[in-house]
């Protein structure tokens, strides 16, 4: 059993004691949790702030570059991209010079790119 489950059970027990216990029991629970928060409170708050900041930054970057990003694959024959057709599969021809990408419609019926054609580009 993982220690996090024991810790969760302990915190639930503390909550139950605070709700149903006597004033001395409540004072003991507040002293124990207060000591914990005094020691770890700064780290907990720092992680919460950093996580929130990181999430908002990632959301901004994703929303800004969603429409402006470059396609990873582009068919050399028809120009189809992984952005224009997300379900399309793309392959690279091993007989062509360089890394020539083709969609599944054109991978088997295209003219192979030779070394001197690639040098012209």
Description:
- The protein has three helices and two strands; from the N terminus they run ααββα.
- The protein is mainly alpha-helical.
- The protein folds into two domains: 63 residues, no CATH class; 51 residues, no CATH class.
- The protein has a two-stranded antiparallel sheet with strand order 1-2.
- A hairpin with an 8-residue loop joins strand 1 and strand 2.
- Helix 1 crosses helix 2.
- It is rod-shaped and about 85 Å long.
SSE arrangement:
Blueprint lengths: L2 H18 L2 H43 L24 E3 L8 E3 L11 H6 L1
Task: Please give a handful of descriptors for the protein shown.
121 residues; 2 strands; rod-shaped
> Helix tally?
3
Beta-strand share of residues: under 5%
Query: How many whole angstroms does the radius of gyration measure?
Result: 30 Å
Helix content: 55-70%
Largest sheet: 2 strands, antiparallel
Number of strands: 2
Overall domain count: 2
The dominant shape is rod-shaped
Class based on secondary structure composition and strand pairing: mainly alpha
Identify the strand order in the major beta sheet.
1-2
The sequence of SSEs as H and E is HHEEH
Distance between the termini: 62 Å
Mean pLDDT: 85
> Could you list the spans in which at least 5 consecutive residues all have pLDDT below 50?
none
Short description:
The chain is 55% helix and 5% strand. It has helices at residues 3-20, 23-65, 115-120, and strands at residues 90-92, 101-103.
